[in-house]
Design brief:
This protein is α/β, with parallel strands linked by helices. The chain contains twelve helices and 17 strands.
């Protein structure tokens, strides 16, 4: 059939004319979009570029101190005199706990377990702190405590992931990954997110604790080893000079970018390109970072490096301060190994366990706070003390000579310091036996929302589209704990 517009003298109707005009505009718009997309694909976008946060906040960096195994809140930061009054007896008034293992265990025969440690009031705030933390107690007026935090699972694996990533299931980005995603990196010669684990071994879940999850690979935490080469495979191969390696990296970058231009956006390839460049720069920066020979003996003693019991975590804390000085956005320090004698999981002997663990960290953490403060860095640094859960104030059966504490996912206690944290403040409260929160419960998502807010980030708008839905660290969003904000 002959098309009418090909006939001589054909005049299109008004409808046909307007339709072709708008189709033409659509074509022009599509061409523009495709050209922008092409330019975007060919351009190099730095995933770690510094970003301006939506809220003005003092803190630019975060140090998270994660105590693996579940710190006993009633032997550290929660003074509950009723425990000693009812030691060896049944808890007289059991609060209603919605569901879960804790409620079930309270229905069976049990006895209350008092704390073997004394508590004293400290600072202008008059906060009670256990005798186990005499050095940290001197900084109590800089700390804001959060009591009665709830996690959705009180088994170590899921609970650790819940606190570390916002989800009790594997595959979600860690807090540090979200922080780096939201703020970028202020140092082009070191990773924006560094992890330093206990020199004795790895935590529960291993690298999943600092994973980038579904965020682009550039936001993965970088593991700093306790001995030898600080970062795996960082050292330059023997016999290869810096100029030779520079030429190799340049050739590799050219090939990778050519491939990226042909195949379009690929976050893993983009991250690898950036990682090669960062690795080259780190070959100078990383060895200098871990070389503590320039630190004074007074500073080393401040962190406990002169004592074998405190030297391990002391080195981690001192490195954290050095990372802050170099603009590293998020540092995760892990104390405790899996579930055993070197973790805070004290089921069998809470007295000896708490003495051992607190002795290893009390002086180093106090040294970190003191050192940050005297260098004018505490206002720029958010320091967070965390664990995966609290502990019970009772045991099923009878109290023996060496009694421990079991898991309590309703009574996690954390504290924050630095930046816009209101020192001496408190959010949340547990009942007189520290079984659960009193009043409105505080969920771990509320703590995450507060942590992000203190770094200038809005948890509701810090999002990533993955698997057909909008993802957040706080999932359904959290409530910022205004009571601990200055």
């Amino acid at each position: 059939m002959t098309r009418p517009e090909l006939n001589e003298g054909y005049t299109p109707s008004r409808r046909v004319f307007l339709g072709r005009m708008f189709n033409g505009f659509g074509g022009l718009a599509l061409t523009g979009l495709l050209s922008c997309e092409a330019r975007g694909a060919s351009a190099s976008v730095d995933p770690l570029a510094v970003k301006v946060p939506p809220f003005p906040r003092k803190a630019k960096n975060c140090i998270m101190l994660f105590m693996c195994g579940g710190v006993s809140q009633v032997d550290s930061f929660e003074y509950k005199p009723k425990l000693n009054e009812f030691h060896g007896k049944r808890i007289p008034h059991i609060p209603k706990i919605a569901s879960g293992e804790l409620q079930g265990r309270l229905t069976f025969a049990h006895q209350c377990v008092g704390s073997p440690f004394t508590f004293q009031q400290n600072g202008q705030s008059g906060r009670y702190i256990s005798e186990l933390f005499p050095n940290l107690a001197r900084h109590v007026d800089d700390l804001a405590f959060i009591h009665g935090i709830q996690v959705d699972n009180q088994n170590h694996g899921p609970a650790t992931l819940h606190v570390a990533t916002g989800s009790q299931f594997p595959g979600s980005p860690s807090v540090g990954s979200w922080v780096q995603y939201g703020l970028g990196s202020a140092n082009q010669n070191l990773p924006g997110y560094v992890v330093i684990q206990d020199p004795r071994g790895a935590p529960t879940n291993g690298a999943a604790v600092w994973s980038n999850g579904y965020l682009p690979a550039a936001y993965q935490g970088t593991f700093l080893r306790p001995a030898g080469t600080s970062i795996v495979d960082l050292a330059r191969p023997q016999g290869v000079s810096a100029p030779q390696q520079r030429q190799e990296f340049d050739a590799l970058a050219w090939l990778n970018r050519r491939h990226l231009g042909e195949d379009g956006k690929d976050s893993e390839l983009e991250a690898r390109i950036s990682a090669y460049e960062l690795a080259f720069r780190m070959q100078t920066a990383a060895p200098e970072l871990v070389d503590l020979s320039g630190e004074t003996e007074e500073t080393k003693a401040l962190y406990g490096l002169d004592n074998p019991k405190t030297a391990g975590f002391g080195r981690q804390c001192l490195l954290a301060r050095r990372l802050v000085e170099r603009g590293v956005r998020h540092t995760l320090l892990l104390h405790g190994v899996q579930i055993g004698k070197d973790s805070w999981d004290d089921h069998g002997n809470v007295k000896d366990g708490m003495i051992k663990h607190s002795r290893e960290v009390d002086l180093p953490v106090a040294g970190l706070l003191a050192d940050l403060k005297r260098r004018g860095l505490l206002d720029e640094t958010l320091v967070v003390w965390a664990s995966e859960m609290g502990r019970t104030s009772f045991v099923n059966g009878t109290v023996g000579d060496k009694v421990g504490r079991d898991h309590n996912g309703h009574a996690l206690c954390m504290w924050m310091a630095g930046g816009n944290v209101k020192g001496g403040a408190t959010a949340g409260e547990t009942d007189e036996f520290s079984l659960r929160s009193v009043g409105d419960p505080i969920h771990i998502r509320d703590v995450h929302a507060t942590l992000l807010n203190l770094l200038g980030l809005d948890d509701e708008n810090l999002t990533y589209h993955y698997a057909g839905r909008i993802r957040r660290l706080t999932d359904i969003r959290g409530n910022v704990l205004q009571r601990i904000l200055a």
